[in-house]
Amino acid sequence: MAEKSIQDSAKFVAMVAKKQGWTLNPDSEFTDSLVEGLMVNFNRYGYYLCPCRDTEGSREADIDVLCPCKYAWDDVAQAGHCFCALYLRPDFAESGQQPSGIPDKRIQNT
User: How many C-alpha atoms does 42 have within 13 Å on its Cβ side?
Assistant: First the structure.
């Protein structure tokens, strides 16, 4: 499997945001750090594991937190952003609000 570069990973998150109708967090330093985390996780585990969560040790066990995680749609709809605050609802981004901590639904579901 070929390793992913920062550019590959940035392209991936931009594609996800566009496909879902979301906006990327406008804080480029913050977003770049998440993209780097995704790249590191892909190159380490072979999949885009959410950079804000720990691995359970396999793709099958981590299926709920492959980026975008299965919780992202509800989190973006309800809080205006996903758990990591990488993806934002467009109106939330335009409002100038800052993402705040939201409960980790993965932990709540265990």
Answer: 19
pLDDT at res. 104: 87
pTM (two decimals): 0.93
**Closest-CA residue to 106 (of 73, 62, 67):** 62
86: left (phi over 0), alpha (psi -120 to 50) or beta: alpha
pLDDT at 106: 84
The structural domains of the chain, with segments of one domain joined by +, span 6-108
* Superfamily name with CATH number, domain 6-108: Ferredoxin thioredoxin reductase catalytic beta subunit (3.90.460.10)
How many residues make up the chain in this entry? 110
The predicted structure's pLDDT at residue 109: 62
Q: Is the dihedral of CA 66, 29, 33, 106 positive or negative?
A: negative
Question: pLDDT tens digits, residue range 38-57?
Answer: 999 999 999 999 999 989 88
CA 13/CA 35 separation, integer angstroms: 8
Peptide bond into 103 cis (omega under 30): no
